[in-house]
């Protein structure tokens, strides 16, 4: 298993350890909001947080950041756990939920009110926005800012008791309306939302905001290093301010520290959960695990391995500057991994019948073939050879150019693990399509005992017609045709959808070995690429998804 490369976050942690902070303890957390499935960007954060834990022989918590009841669902909680486990990581103890801290957070909010550091405000969202000021001009103080502690305590209790409607009142921190950091200008701590929560049910009708939740949740769990993406850098003073307020006069044994890193951006894709959800809801993809989705579940169904995703996270590294990673790197990683692991098999995706006219009718020979030339331990198997086989339609040309080292009238090729054949004739239908190819074989050219002396340039894969099993094969192309589909000001990201991102080949012919594959099993279809059995593939209805081609077809 790959080691996480050391990066600036490790250096910061080393410094904290050297300074004796937190009694030498390390605990990280991965804090997803359960409002969608995890995507490849989350995988980077997972590999980083769990990678740190592994490196320091420490733990990493899984905490659901579930403070917004309007968008969260149990389905997401379940899928997130499945995906983290599949990636090969184990969180510390039971999963944690920010919602389990609601009572404690409420008490801390009351504490802030008592300290004169929070107040109930009645401005609506537009008023607040209008009075916020700009980074260079101070904001306007709310007319409710100087309410008495008693009045604030009373109003906040009544907010909790459900006396007010959504949006009627909010609780704000009383910090500094002239701060150069906009997040310090009396940020919202609580809002009223009469909404059912996936865990706390109808117990609450006020919900804490992210900023008032995250640092305190980290503190409650004893998190030492709270690692998040760069956009939270400007929230860090607020993260610390809330901790300062609730910990005033105390010297806790562990105080969490927020450290930011650059989020992963991939070209030719979108990664916001809101946009991914839109693709699902509008039926543009078949679901969160559609093999074209950048979700962990989509990649899994596509045939990606946990190792390939971890390798990708490792290669991308951890930086302090935002950048965009080429999706070709992700494809490279899975190709590398599958090259080592995937069994080589024969599949003909666009079959055309080829008849070996001088091969005895009814005869079947079992041909030996290695399962993976990269890994001897994967052994060998035999594949049946007979008079009628299928080859790829693309491997035959009636008027082939000289450099076409495949089949055409009068040309010779080797059938992989079998014989050299020569094309003698073909059958052309009235509409111009070629329906059958007629060849003769050279009996002394059998692979492994070839004494024919013939030299051929091309080797074709094939499947014996009478032994072949039928399958549907799904080919994928990029879901978006633009490098940055959500980077256009005046255009919706959906305008850049690739209409040809999915091609279904319904009449593929596979070697009989593939009749009994398990869902998600990976293979190399010789000469074609890597393919994985779909999650819904069954012996009598085989379906395969193309994971990636053998080499980067986008390179040129
Ligand atoms: P989205 O914008 O897709 O909704 P999010 O950041 O709101 O993503 P969360 O569920 O809150 O999603 O994220 C959980 C953790 O994963 C956070 O710590 C977040 O910083 C991290 N994360 C999310 N997206 C990326 C990304 N593209 N690269 C690296 N880390 C990410
Ligand atoms: Mg978030
Ligand atoms: Mg989000």
Automatic annotation (TrEMBL):
Keywords: Aminoacyl-tRNA synthetase, ATP-binding, Cytoplasm, Ligase, Nucleotide-binding, Protein biosynthesis. Residues 26-339 form the Glutamyl/glutaminyl-tRNA synthetase class Ib catalytic domain. GO terms for cellular component: cytosol. It catalyses: tRNA(Gln) + L-glutamine + ATP = L-glutaminyl-tRNA(Gln) + AMP + diphosphate. Monomer. Belongs to the class-I aminoacyl-tRNA synthetase family. This is Glutamine--tRNA ligase.
């Amino acid at each position: 298993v790959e080691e996480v490369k050391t990066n600036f976050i490790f250096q910061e942690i080393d410094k904290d350890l050297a300074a004796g902070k937190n009694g030498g303890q390390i605990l990280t957390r991965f804090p997803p909001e359960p409002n969608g499935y995890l995507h490849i960007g989350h995988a980077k954060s997972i590999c980083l947080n769990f990678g740190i834990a592994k490196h320091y022989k420490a733990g990493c918590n899984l905490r659901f950041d579930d403070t917004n009841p309007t968008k969260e669902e149990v389905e997401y909680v379940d899928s997130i756990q499945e995906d983290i486990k599949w990636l090969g990581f184990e969180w510390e103890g039971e999963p944690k939920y920010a919602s389990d801290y609601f009572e404690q957070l409420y008490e801390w909010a009351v504490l802030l009110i008592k300290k004169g550091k929070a107040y109930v405000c009645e401005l609506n969202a537009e008023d607040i926005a209008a009075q916020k000021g700009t980074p260079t001009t101070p904001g306007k103080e709310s007319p409710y800012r100087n309410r008495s502690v008693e009045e604030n305590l009373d109003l906040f209790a009544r907010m909790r008791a459900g006396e007010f409607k959504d949006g009627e009142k909010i609780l704000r921190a009383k910090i500094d309306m002239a701060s150069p950091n906009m997040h310090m200008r009396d940020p919202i701590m609580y809002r009223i939302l009469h909404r059912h929560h996936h865990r706390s049910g109808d117990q609450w009708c006020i919900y804490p905001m992210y900023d008032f939740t995250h640092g305190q949740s980290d503190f409650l769990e004893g998190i030492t290093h709270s690692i998040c993406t760069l956009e939270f850098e400007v929230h860090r003073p607020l993260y610390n301010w809330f901790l300062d307020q609730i910990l005033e006069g105390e010297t806790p044994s562990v105080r969490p520290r927020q450290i930011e890193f650059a989020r992963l951006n991939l070209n030719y894709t979108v990664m916001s959960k809101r946009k991914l959800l839109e693709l699902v809801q509008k039926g543009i993809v078949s679901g969160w695990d559609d093999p074209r989705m950048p979700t962990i579940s989509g990649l899994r169904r596509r045939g990606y391995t946990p190792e390939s995703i971890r390798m990708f996270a490792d290669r991308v590294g951890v930086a302090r500057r935002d950048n965009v990673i080429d999706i070709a790197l992700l494809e490279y990683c899975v190709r590398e991994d599958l090259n080592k692991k995937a069994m080589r098999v024969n599949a003909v995706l666009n079959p055309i019948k080829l008849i070996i006219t001088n091969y005895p009718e009814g005869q079947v020979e079992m041909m030996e073939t290695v399962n993976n030339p990269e890994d001897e331990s994967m052994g060998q198997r035999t594949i049946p050879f007979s008079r009628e086989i299928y080859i790829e339609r693309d491997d035959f040309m009636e008027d082939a150019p000289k450099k076409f080292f495949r089949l055409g009238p009068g040309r010779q090729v080797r059938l992989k693990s079998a014989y050299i054949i020569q094309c003698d004739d073909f059958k052309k239908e009235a509409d111009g399509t070629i329906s059958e190819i007629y060849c003769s074989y050279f009996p002394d050219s059998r692979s492994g005992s070839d004494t024919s002396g013939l030299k051929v340039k091309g080797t074709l894969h094939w499947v014996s017609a009478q032994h072949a099993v039928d399958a549907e094969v799904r080919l994928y192309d990029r879901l978006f045709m633009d490098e940055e589909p959500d980077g256009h000001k005046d255009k919706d990201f959906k305008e850049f959808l690739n209409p040809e991102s999915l091609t279904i080949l319904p009449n593929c012919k596979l070697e009989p070995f593939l009749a009994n594959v398990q869902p998600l099993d990976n293979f190399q279809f010789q000469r074609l690429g890597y393919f994985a059995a779909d999650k819904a593939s069954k012996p009598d209805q085989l379906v395969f998804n193309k994971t990636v081609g053998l080499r980067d077809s986008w390179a040129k």
